[in-house]
Structure formats: structure tokens, C-alpha cells
Amino acid sequence: MKFHxxxxxxxxxxxxxxxxxxxxxxxxxxxxxxxxxTNDPHRTVDDRPFGGGExxxxxxxxxxxxxxxxxxxxxxxxxVILLSAQGRRFSQxxxxxxxxxxxxxxxCGRYEGVDERVAEHLADDELSIGDYVLSGGELAAAVIVxxxxxxxxxxxxxxxxxxxxxxxxxxxDCPQWTRPAEFRGWKAPEILLGGNHAEIRKWRxxxxxxxxxxxxxxxxxxxxK
Length: 225
Ligand code: SAM
What we know:
By secondary structure, this protein is α/β, with parallel strands linked by helices. Helix content is 32%, strand content 18%. The longest helix is centred in the last third of the chain and has 19 residues.
């Protein structure tokens, strides 16, 4: 799968993508500097908002020009996503849906946001990573790329390690322990130290339900619908 990121801070991704799943084979990430699609000496990408108010807004022209240069003709497995606090909330399920595509182009907003014509006439989807306001779309883009990349075949060593993960079955993953079996007087559950795999599976399912009930009852309410 191929990702394109459109940003005014191309250097931002040096850190997040140098480590972990995105650095592994099969994940192609192209970073595009939005200023490359400006025509003035100052390489202007923003302007004041119509109607007045604080801050600046990213202009539509460089964003449309960038997308139309990267994909002169777009096919249905190439999707443009605008990162926005106002978008639908990104989730594991949306990550699985996006996995059906061959290429994704993520537009990172900055300042007070992006001219609304980008959401209305260019983006296929507008996604938020949560109900809070970041100062730019770059962090959100890194979150989305990382989440999708680890679902790609062969990226995470054992594909079973993604199917039982939190949110995949509508509940949280089970809690985990490792050596030492006793640490500062706190013991790992006895059942996990034995080799009865059927019993361990059953116990883990109950532990996952218990943790979901305690920390994310909203997930269970959603399952019940
Ligand atoms: N004025 C906007 C609002 O209140 O909805 C916030 C703009 S924010 C300071 C600048 C950029 O950060 C946005 O254009 C978007 O690309 C990104 N951003 C902020 N919060 C985000 C979130 N929760 N999810 C995804 N992107 C976000």
C-alpha cells in the first residue's frame, strides 16, 4: 500500500516513520511539501479567513494542484483524506475499510484549518483522530498511517496478533503479563503460567470482558445494539 502525505512540514515525519511498522517492507510513504505547489516568491499557502476572525486558513489552490499532480486521474482505490477535528472519528473499523485501497493521500491542515472547498470538492473523507484540537494534521496522519500499516499482511510478524487486538472484536484485548512471575509481591495470574491452552483462552476472554466492562463500558453498550 502506498501513502502520500501533503504537509507544510515535510521534516515532521522523519521521526515517526523511521521506527516501527512503517519502516518495514511493504509500506511506501511519500511526503509532499505543499509549498511546492505555490507560484509566488513567498511560497504562500495560507490567507486570512473571509468574515474575519483569528488566524489563517490554508488556501485551496496549492492543495488542489498538489492532489491533481500526484494523481492526474484518480481511480476508486485511490482516496483523498482530509485530517480535521470536524471529521468522522477514525477507528479500527475505519482502518480496516481503508485497507481496501491501493493508495491514500492524507492532507494535513494547519493554522485555523483548510478552506472548506477541499472537504467539499476534493476529499473523499474527512477524518478526526479524536475529540480534541491538534495544532496540525501531521500527528493525526502519522496515527492513521501507523494503524493501517500494521494491518497489512506481513508487517506485524504474526497476523493472529492483530485479530484479537482491542476493538477488532468490539471489546478490548486481554491484559498481558511477562517475566518475572512475581514482581514486588504482585503475581502474574497462576493460570497463565501453566500449559493448558484451552483454559488460558477461556480465562483471557473473561479477562478481556472484565477489563472492557471496567474501562470501556461504552464498547459493550455498542455491542448490545
Ligand atoms: N479551527 C479548527 C477547528 O476548531 O475545528 C481547528 C484547526 S487545527 C488548529 C489545525 C489542523 O490540525 C486542522 O486543519 C487539522 O488538519 C488538524 N487537526 C486538529 N485536530 C485534529 C483532530 N482531532 N484530528 C485530525 N486532525 C486534526
